[in-house]
Design brief:
The protein is α+β, with helices and mostly antiparallel strands. It contains 4 helices and 9 strands, in the order βαββαββββαββα.
Length: about 150
Amino acid sequence: MEALRVQGLKFTFGVEFCRLALLRCFGELGSLYDVLLDVDVGEALVTYAESVSAQEAYIKMNGFLLFGETIRVSITVPPVSEVPGCSVTHRPSRFVIIRGATSLWVELNLRHVKGVEQHQIVGANAAVVSFANEHISTKIKRMFDG
């Protein structure tokens, strides 16, 4: 995997519209793994499955005019997950990281949830929970997010 940092983004037309525009523009140059947005800073992290595609995107998209603004593209490293062997992504996943909860709380509250395959404590107040499928994990995540 290879990651590109895209700077100079404006979210004039909304966050989702900007994300879709980035997916379309950068997706034409290779197979995308994910696009992570940082709205406060006006940046995105575009991750390609193949390094060659990321290099081509860097050459072609640096200085590209998007929504009337020139974007700056640079090669960077993907964000590091606090859980070894996992990657940071917004793509649906069977796994959910629960922070700020004791292992006892995780054990008691997830004991009767259908679809929980296993949970592993990864820190003082953090756990990774594995669900049977992405649909269940997405519902649980929405429940925890409020």
